[in-house]
């Protein structure tokens, strides 16, 4: 039996190949925690923004970053930082816009981290936007990924921007 490749079947094979190959192109990078450190460095950000317990991450071409941990946990930087099992963010050079999954303790409140920015590589500072305030912190504090322990003391769930504590209403206009 011979199989002849008619023009029609060539076209069919071409389209089948597209269907199977296209989904693979969407995900540019996928990897482990050490690879994530490299990705952060290449974006001008400190390598230790995420804890040691990172299991995997996905980063697509649009800069959508999704970081997976084994479980929610707390890491101690200059203050306690809460990481949910999945952290979603938009990554671009010098900036990590956190969409959900990261909060920090500030004056006994848990505030969702919204934005992590390095405006000037030479300043040695990173800026963390927690809604009503910008924290300027030393770059070196985030050089190394920290250990992250499970959060037995926290009996509540925090959902990124909708984190508990301070209901950020986009300014002071709603105060009376
Ligand atoms: C993150 O990226 C998506 C798609 O590119 C965009 O729609 C969204 O507004 C971005 N979020 C922030 C907070 O910039």
From TrEMBL:
Print the keywords alphabetically: Signal
User: Does the keyword Transmembrane helix feature in the UniProt annotation?
Assistant: no
Q: Which InterPro entries match?
A: At5g01610-like, DUF538
Pfam families listed in its UniProt record? DUF538
Which region is the signal sequence? 1-28
State if Signal is listed as a keyword.
yes
- Which PANTHER family is this protein grouped with? PROTEIN, PUTATIVE-RELATED, T31J12.3 PROTEIN-RELATED
The name under which this protein is listed is Xylanase inhibitor C-terminal domain-containing protein
């Amino acid at each position: 039996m011979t199989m002849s490749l008619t023009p029609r079947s060539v076209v069919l094979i071409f389209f089948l190949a597209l269907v199977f190959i296209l989904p693979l192109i969407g995900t540019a990078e996928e990897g482990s925690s050490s690879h994530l450190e490299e990705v952060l460095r290449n974006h001008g950000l400190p390598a230790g923004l995420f804890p040691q317990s990172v299991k995997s991450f996905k980063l697509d071409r649009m800069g959508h970053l999704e970081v997976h941990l084994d479980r929610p946990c707390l890491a101690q930087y200059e203050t306690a930082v809460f990481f949910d099992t999945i952290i979603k963010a938009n990554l671009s050079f010098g900036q990590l816009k956190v969409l959900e999954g990261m909060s920090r303790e500030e004056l006994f409140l848990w505030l969702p981290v919204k934005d992590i920015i390095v405006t000037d590589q030479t300043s040695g500072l990173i800026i963390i936007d927690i809604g009503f305030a910008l924290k300027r912190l030393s770059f070196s504090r985030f050089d190394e990924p920290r250990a992250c322990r499970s959060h037995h003391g926290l009996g509540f769930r925090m959902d990124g921007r909708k984190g508990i504590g301070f209901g950020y209403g986009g300014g002071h206009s709603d105060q009376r």
